[in-house]
Amino acid sequence: MPEEKTRVDFNAPASIVERADNVAELLDISRTRLLIDALQDELDELINEEGFRAHLRDAYYDERIDFQTVKSVLGQEEAMRMNLLRASIDREPPEPQLKAELPTDEKFYDGEVPVWQSEEAADNEDVESSA
Amino acid sequence: MADRPISVVDTNVLLNLATPVVDGRPAAPTGADPLKALLVTYNVHVPASVVGELSMATGSDDLLSAAAKLVLNASHHLTTHDVDAKIDEPLDYGLDQGESDGIWLANDLEAALFITDEFNSTNYLFVSLALDDRNTLFTTPHVLCKFASQGIIPPEYVDAALSYYGDTKQWDEQYLNRLRHKYLRD
Questions:
Q1: Which residues of A touch B168 (CB under 8 A)?
Q2: What whole-number distance in Å separates Cα of residue B152 and Cα of residue B126?
């Protein structure tokens, strides 16, 4: 069953409309078809842009946009994930219990605490320590 | 020590907690030990498959390997359970063995927390669905924020650690900011 359609009226700069009409004629498609395709491409591109997704997450966590909006843009699964994650922020983890201070490394770790450095950083440190 | 809340964690959580401790680069936060904080203040249980996954992660000279070594050095603070033998139908939501076993264990022990860092992907949905009590589901940054608010780890360290994870693991920056706002800024 074809999706229900909504009529959209908008004003656009005449030069853009003229260019669109020329391209549509060349491709032998309707102006409407060209506009829908262009809009679809633009939305697809935006949705995959990290900056836009970050913007959307911010708006959702701040409750500026609702679940349906996130769902319509990012899809059901992503909207559900964000919904669960947002709800989890309001939960308090059970109280951690600490009787005194945390134990020393010697007492706690059965063995040494390994330290990793990238080779680059290790080289730089050698230079610094010998300077 | 019986009053420490029972917590079940997956392999990635242990590795993520150990990573800033073993990372000697200047960008890594220093001055606290989130792995030690977790293992001392909670009663941490893991399926045996997690220890297996940790052992598999050692053996090279990279950061992950160093983190795995640190967790193994602290493994006597973990309670391990042989889950494989008990599970009837493995949870099959595209989660790996350690995660599936962990969820099963959390349900079986009626754990107060199940900690996972699978919150950047739809796996978070599957973990939520598979847990008997979704309210026990937490993430490493969330637990670290709790430690800060309880005075177990300095808030400055947790703040720096969240930035470190955001930069190195591409964790949802907006989620981290919400946690910061709730626990570190108020």
A1: none
A2: 31
